[in-house]
Amino acid sequence: MTIFLNGRTREMTADTCIQDLISHLSLGKARFAVEVNGILIPHSTYAVHRLQPDDQVEIVHAIGGG
Fold it and tell me: Where are the domains of the chain?
């Protein structure tokens, strides 16, 4: 299936959850937030939130500062 990740198309398998996507991108312990179709997804649901064809996924990295 095709999703849009940060504005670019990406092919994923049909049963992909957010946690699978995070693992595929090798984000590991990085600090980031995930939005799907404009809705912020809680970290506690990454393993159960299944992506759907044409989902608009935004992953934003947290940057420290002051």
Answer: 2-61
Residue among 61, 59, 6 at smallest CA distance from 31:
61
pTM over 0.85: yes
**CATH topology assigned to domain 2-61:** Ubiquitin-like (UB roll) (3.10.20)
pLDDT digits (tens, 9 = 90+) for 16-31: 999 999 999 998 888 8
3, β-bridge pairs: 10
| Number of neighbours of residue 34 by Cβ within 10 angstroms | 21
- Total Cβ atoms within 10 A of residue 33: 13
Report in angstroms the alpha-carbon separations of 2 from 16, 24, 29, 31, 32: 11, 15, 26, 25, 22
